[in-house]
């Protein structure tokens, strides 16, 4: 059997708000949810499970590979919603995208403060 990534739990201040943010940004339908999880399902069956832990949230980094058309639409939503974004992971190039690895990329944060990266070309 080959190895594939199946799911991860993403800590959220408000799991419904975070799940909605990802669904709207990446244009994915609502997925069945259960227990303490509000789920978002991506292509390939990858499941993002949003939960509200009773501890301080530690910021994580999540990168998403998207096609050019979705990048254009999602980036337009980032701009329309006035979401702070940067061309670099250090926040030195605000309001811009990058053209690294022969594609395009942008960094921004989700409602819980996690650092997100959206790219059109994989690093390797």
UniProtKB/TrEMBL annotation:
InterPro entries: Glyas_Bleomycin-R_OHBP_Dase (IPR029068), Glyas_Fos-R_dOase_dom (IPR004360), VOC_core (IPR037523). It comes from the Bacteria. Residues 4-121 form the VOC domain. This is VOC family protein. It comes from Saccharopolyspora karakumensis.
